[in-house]
Predict the structure of Arc-like DNA binding domain-containing protein.
Amino acid sequence: MDSQDSRPGSASGAPGRRKQERKSVLLRLDPAVHEALQRWAADELRSVNAQIEIVLRDALKDAHRAPKEAGPIPRRGRPPRQ
C-alpha cells in the first residue's frame, strides 16, 4: 500500500501546504469532573472533547502561554445557512 494519502484535505492532498495533524491524548478524570464537563459541553452544544480544548486554549491565553502557531479550532457540524 502506498504511504501517500490522496484524499482531499489530507496532509499530502494540497501541494505545498501541509495540514496539521490533530494529537490524541488519553486523559484520566474524576467521574464528577467529567460529568460537570459533559453538562457544560451540552449547554454550549459541544462535545466533551471540544469543550476541553476550549477550556485549555482559554487557560493558555489567560496565562500568556498560547502558542502563536496554533491553528483555529476546527469548525464541526452543519455548515451555516446562506
